[in-house]
Amino acid sequence: MKVAPKKPQHASNTHPWVSASMVVLGLGALALAVFWIRKCRSSGAPKHEYSALNTDAGNEKFRTEKQVRNGAFTACKHYLSDNDRYELKTQLGEIGSRTDKHWFTVQDKTLGAERLLTLVPLPSMCPLNPTSGTRDTLLDLFRGLQHPYIHPVLDIEFWDTGTALISPLNPSGSLKDLIYASPWHEDYDKKYNNKGEGLPLRTVQCLGRQILEGLLFLRNRYFPPFYHLHAGNVIIQNGVARLAGLENPLLGLLPRAPSAPETLAFGYLLFEMTAGYQLPKPPSPAHLELELERAPKVADALGLIFQSSRTPTLEELVCCELFRGVELRELRGASIIQVRSSPEVIELLEVVRNPVPPSPLRRCSRDYRRQASRRYNRRRQRRQ
Questions:
Q1: C-alpha radius of gyration, the chain, whole number
Q2: In sequence order, what are the beta bridge partners of 113?
Q3: Residue 162 region, left (φ>0) first, then alpha (ψ -120 to 50), else beta?
Q4: Which one of 76, 104, 264, 299 is CB 3.0 to 4.6 Å from 117, fit for a cystine?
Q5: For every one of its 384 residues, what pLDDT tens digit does the chain have, with 9 covering 90 and above?
């Protein structure tokens, strides 16, 4: 009887560890896959929920802003529908830093000129009573502020939705637009994202001196301290700086940060003109030396403003080396009218400087007007 020969077993028994290794590797890969699947599921859900919440919040903010803009447009259209002089043309974007302000272009049908209409709500701390009499007094005040370095307010009206101001429309935009080389009509949060270019020294000297002259003129007219000085409130017209935003202190609007007295605010502005960006706080000597190496005269003027033991006056800044000898051609042939302010204007300025309720503008007090006029005249005599 033949017995079948047994097949050799050496092929499978020679390396048993190979099979075991394959099994272990397979189980490890399976465990790793299960781990990653569970991790992705646990971390994925909150991620999607968070994104959805962000999207909803963004959409809600967009809808709210759109409703506010549409409301401002509707109000402006309503009030100008029966206006004999101004015709609404278009609504502009958020060209300024104040989110509660709205801007429109209108056509002055009497003069055939395009104007800028600014609609700003009256704050609760507004020291003035919005009546037709206050409107006439404000117009009287603005007409008396005619100066080559002052941006004029041509008209003003009190609406239920706020105060509407008419001013010239300047395609050159503001000093901030010049520094950042941005179109004036673009939204504020888009056109100033990148660092601007510092202006040439000669331009800094000319514009700076013009701004100082404008501030001195306002002070001589007993205008309230101008805490709203910044590059966005300086309009450039034919290469000349003109102070704007004069309605802000009169209406009780809070200044934007960094809020500072006129001399310090001018220092911030002078640095931004030269370096191309705005300072959040006073600069250190090392900062001035590093950033303004190419403009030592500007660095010296800023050192005088920020590092001195005593803050210099506007007159002292005019006499410093940076601005001494700057030619003011606009003042040569300008007829700056030295008008005597009316008692109503003097009273209004007193109310703005000392807003003590109840507002004197709500009283027809002849005695108060006489007293305010005497105080105003005494201050003028002391300055002279």
A1: 33
A2: 108
A3: left
A4: 104
A5: 444 444 444 444 445 555 555 655 665 665 665 565 555 444 444 444 444 445 566 677 667 778 888 999 999 999 999 899 999 999 999 999 888 899 999 999 999 999 999 999 999 889 999 999 999 999 999 999 999 999 999 999 999 989 999 999 999 999 999 999 999 999 988 899 888 889 999 999 999 999 999 999 999 999 999 999 999 999 999 999 999 999 999 999 988 877 789 999 999 999 999 999 999 889 888 889 889 988 999 999 999 999 999 999 999 999 999 999 899 999 887 666 667 889 999 999 999 988 654 443 443 344 544 555 555 455 545 545
Q: First vs last Cα of the chain: how many Å apart?
A: 145
296, HSE (Cβ side, Cα atoms, 13 Å): 0
HEC-encoded secondary structure of 63-119:
HHHHHHHHHHHHHHHHHHCCCCCEEEEEECCCCCCCCCCEEEEEEECCCCEEEEEEE
Give dist(CA 10, CA 196) in Å, integer. Answer: 82
Those residues with Cβ within 8 angstroms of residue 356's Cβ, 6 or more apart along the chain or in another chain: none
Using CB atoms within 10 Å of the CB of residue 178, give its burial: 0 to 12 exposed, 13 to 18 middle, 19+ buried: buried
**Cβ-proximal residues to 107 (8 Å cutoff; 6+ apart), any chain:** 86, 87, 89, 113, 114, 115
Q: Classify residue 269 by burial, with Cβ atoms within 10 Å: 0-12, 13-18, 19+.
A: buried
Report CA-CA distances (Å) from 375 to 7, 343, 370. 126, 11, 9
Query: Which amino acid, residue 23?
Result: V
Q: Record the tokens describing residue 72, joined without a space.
A: 């401002």
Tokens of 152: 């004029």
Which pTM does this prediction carry? 0.77
* Contact criterion met (CB below 8 Å) for 282 and 260: no
Calculate the alpha carbon distances from 325 to 209, 299, 328, 332 in Å.
10, 18, 9, 15
